Amino acid sequence: LFGMFKSLTSGRVLTAETLAEPMARMREHLANKNVAADIAAEICRSVAQGMVGVRVGGLQSIKALVEENMERALTRILTPISSTDIIRDIAQARTQNRPYTMAFVGVNGVGKSTNLSKVCYWLLQNNKRVLIAACDTFRSGAVEQLRVHVRNLRALSTNQDVEIFERGYGKDSAAIAKDAIAFGAANNFDVVLIDTAGRMQDNEPLMRALAKLVSVNSPDKILFVGEALVGNEAVDQLTKFNQALRDFSGMSKPRHIDGMILTKFDTIDDRVGAALSMTYTTGQPIVFVGTGQTYTDLRKMNVSQVIRALLRA
Amino acid sequence: MVLNELGARINGALQALSRESVIDDKALDALLRDICGALLESDVNVRLVQQLRQNVKKRVNVEELASSANKRKIIQTAVFDELCGLVDPGVEPWKPRKGKQNVIMFVGLQGSGKTTSCTKLAAYYKRKGMKVGLVCADTFRAGAFDQLKQNASRVHIPYYGSYTEADPVQIAREGVDKFKADKFDIIIVDTSGRHKQEAELFAEMVQISQAVQPDNTIFVMDGTIGQAADAQARAFKESVDIGSIIITKMDGHAKGGGAISAVAATSSPIIFIGTGEHMHDLDRFSARPFVSKMLGMGDLSGLVET
Ligand SMILES: Nc1nc2c(ncn2[C@@H]2O[C@H](COP(=O)(O)OP(=O)(O)OP(=O)(O)O)[C@@H](O)[C@H]2O)c(=O)[nH]1
Ligand SMILES: Nc1nc2c(ncn2[C@@H]2O[C@H](COP(=O)(O)OP(=O)(O)OP(=O)(O)O)[C@@H](O)[C@H]2O)c(=O)[nH]1
Ligand SMILES: [Mg+2]
Ligand SMILES: [Mg+2]
Questions:
Q1: CA distance B75 to chain A (A)
Q2: Strands (E), A47-111
């Protein structure tokens, strides 16, 4: 990749000009790793800026120096500022005699319902009682899909601590979520997981409906589910989901996406750029990574592994 | 819709070129930089973008051009042809044969839109007066059969599937046999989502394909896919005989460049694009008119054979 820049450059001071070419290569390298083009450009620009004026030591190559600086920048972007301890937050909600609520949102087919079921499995492992609210009342088979998951999860769990709350198709999803949360509170559930219909970020009626679901129910966590396969669209999706929550909610303190689930991580080899695009765009953490189609295929993100994959030739 | 915004960007770059008083290497490089940047932002495969840049440079020898009166047109034509090459593999798309029973199999990555698109396609052929049946050979995804059933019922298309049989090969064979016996013109087989990293899933796809002997295999790609498109498309192509491509979810903001990369990877044409979740949201696609339209090529089209 940096073949041209292997040459040693001793005792030189880096300028914008000397950095232009290696940075252009880095940009293309990141784009090839599936980082959104704009974001790759922005990160490269800021890394280059930080390197201008640096004196290159005798045996240092610019390539190594660029990678070193890039690694530092990527670590900063990918490392969450706040920790997410959902189990602790659930306990906190319990002290207020209410279930902890999580809404799974995102565009079509990215894995919302499947990864909701994986999160449910993880919660059951942690001895939580979980209610799944079937609030995708639009897509064919969405309710039955969750019913099957609940049946499977009940068979897997010792105490059968999971139930589905459903009202069929065609109904107002915000109202169903509200009833589900009330039902969860009355029946001693620790957590309510809210499945929502997939929607395109430009579809205003559907985005308004999502903002309504959020403002009516104030879920504790709004998790954006995005697939690792997504390219430049990642940026637009996240920006517009946040925009809709802000502009359509009618709340004085509007909500935003609290975190992401990065799905289909098993389908992309080392083109892990979507992880970077998503965290850069939102400043929010990737709470889980989906790595397959079974209940145990849910991981915490390994930041250094992602960075290694991003910089690998 | 697909590529529109990209078309606007490229067109802008071409127009900027028309305003240049001298067209030298520098102007050409600037133009190509703009175009390649736009392609990368649209998720076109990085290698294809590099190739396009080289091909145009190779075709347009600036020095030889110097004397030519229509430098700009030569450059524009080169760019146009290369863009066409991206979306047009130069093969006739498969068409169902009248009086024959045509089996179509759908394959693709998880969640790409297979189940939705196969019902849309079934409805499309039904509107053309053909007798169409749908087979659900996805025994893996929770609720897959219910999904297909509800979709099919909405557009009154007969379907075949099972809640209890776990072997998709078995169901596919049974369903196709049944519809063949009932003299259906078009039999569409929906399969589970899969990816190249899981060899077993690909082996299953090959088995289904062998069992139903499809006349056409349609590869469904999500229009928002990024740089992973090429490797996945290639792997599908190596396992089954992909004849056509459908790109889905083009009703949003996506430009579909990743999915378009699948054309090069599979040498197969895009036949339809999905433009919504409803059963009639399916648009026909044809490459060259599309590129002309996207570039608003009123004056250019005369230059180019179609
Ligand atoms: N390989 C892989 N497949 C996944 C992963 N997560 C989900 N899937 C698959 O992706 C497909 C779509 O998943 P769903 O959970 O139905 O997606 P969704 O976002 O709920 O879809 P809609 O509700 O229709 O918008 C299914 O085939 C899942 O099995 C993952 O981490 N890896
Ligand atoms: N907006 C929009 N949504 C679409 C389009 N095509 C499919 N979808 C949606 O994308 C999601 C996934 O579609 P499916 O048809 O279930 O995808 P699939 O490939 O069968 O998924 P698996 O069987 O799990 O691999 C659903 O929510 C569909 O409604 C489209 O053209 N536009
Ligand atoms: Mg769903
Ligand atoms: Mg399907």
A1: 24
A2: 55-56, 100-105
Q: Which residues of B touch A238 (CB under 8 A)?
A: none
Average pLDDT over residues A279-292: 97
Q: How far B170 CA sits from the closest chain A CA (Å)?
A: 22
What secondary structure does DSSP assign to B5-36, as a single string?
A: HHHHHHHHHHHHHHH-SS--HHHHHHHHHHHH
Of B111, B147, B227, the CB nearest to A111: B111
- Contact between B117 and B249 under an 8 Å Cβ cutoff? The reply is no
| CA pair distance B237, B231, nearest whole angstrom | 10
Mutate which of B116, B249, B279 for ligand 2? The one with the most ligand atoms within 8 Å of its CB, which is: B116
- CB-based contact A200 B252, cutoff 8 Å: yes
Nearest alpha carbon, ligand 2 atom 17: B113
Single-letter code of the amino acid located at A235: V
pLDDT tens for chain B, residues 1 to 306: 456 677 777 878 888 877 777 778 888 888 899 889 988 998 999 999 999 999 999 888 766 676 666 777 788 888 888 888 888 999 999 999 989 999 999 999 999 999 999 999 999 999 999 999 999 999 999 999 999 999 999 999 999 999 999 999 999 999 999 999 999 999 999 999 999 999 999 999 999 999 999 999 999 999 999 999 999 999 999 999 999 999 999 998 888 889 989 999 999 999 999 999 999 999 999 887 777 766 665 444 444 433
Asked if A193 and A165 count as a contact pair (C-beta separation under 8 A), the reply is no
pLDDT in tens, B116-163: 999 999 999 999 999 999 999 999 999 999 999 999 999 999 999 999
pTM, two decimals, is 0.94
- Give A260's strand partners: A224, A286
Angle (CA) A183-A185-A186 rounded to 5° is: 65
Q: How many residues does chain B have?
A: 306
The complex's ipTM? 0.95
Residue A264: which region, alpha, beta or left (left: phi > 0; alpha: psi -120 to 50)? left
Size of interface A-B (CB pairs under 8 A): 143
A140: nearest CB among B110, B151, B232: B151
**Cα distances (angstroms) measured from residue A106 to each of A60, A236, A242, B45, B249:** 45, 12, 11, 25, 13
Would you state the structure tokens that stand for residue B129, as one six-digit string? Answer: 């007066």
Are A107 and B249 an interchain contact pair (Cβ–Cβ within 8 Å)? yes
